[in-house]
Structures are given as C-alpha cells and as structure tokens.
Write a structure and sequence with these properties.
Blueprint (H helix, E strand, L loop, with lengths): L7 H12 L3 E4 L8 E4 L9 E4 L6 H14 L2 H5 L1
Antiparallel strand pairs: 1-2, 2-3
Helix pairs in contact: 1-2
The structure holds zinc ion.
The site of zinc ion has 6 residues, from loops.
C-alpha cells in the first residue's frame, strides 16, 4: 500500500487526489512544506497545493485537499 503521508486523513486525501490525476511530490528534508500536489495540468497554469507535515488540524488540511481537487477545472478547460 502506498503511503504518502504519516497522517491517515491527509494520506487518504493525497490518494484521492492521485486517483483524480494529480501528482504528489515529496519535498526535501529542509523544505518547510511536506510535499506539493500538482493537478493534471501542473505545467504552466495548473493548480498546486502545499501539503504540510504537521498541520494543527489534520482533518481541515485533508478537507482542503479534497476541495482543491473538486474545484480544479483545468482538464475541462484544456479539453
Ligand atoms: Zn487544476
């Protein structure tokens, strides 16, 4: 089982994003973010979303990822 993030709510949100065509890149050890999610059109005008390692409220952080995936219309615009 792929594991992207130590927090299970956030990990599930990342898996949800990936199943919708997003890409997750883990940041380096010194970066202040844990990783970055890029939508399917991450090249120029696509969305990107910072994922934090230890957000104060992990559930809220996960919710924001779900919302971001839902709100992304890049693929529709490019079609
Ligand atoms: Zn997008």
């Amino acid at each position: 089982m792929a594991k992207y993030h130590p927090n299970k709510e956030i990990n599930a949100a990342i898996e949800h994003a990936i199943s919708n065509g997003w890409r997750f890149e883990k940041a380096g050890p010194r970066a202040h973010v844990y990783g970055v999610l890029y939508c399917a059109l991450a090249n120029r005008s696509g969305c990107r979303h910072n994922v934090h390692g230890t957000p104060r409220v992990p559930e809220d952080h996960a919710d924001r990822i779900y919302k971001r995936v839902k709100d992304c219309t890049c693929q529709e615009r490019s079609a």
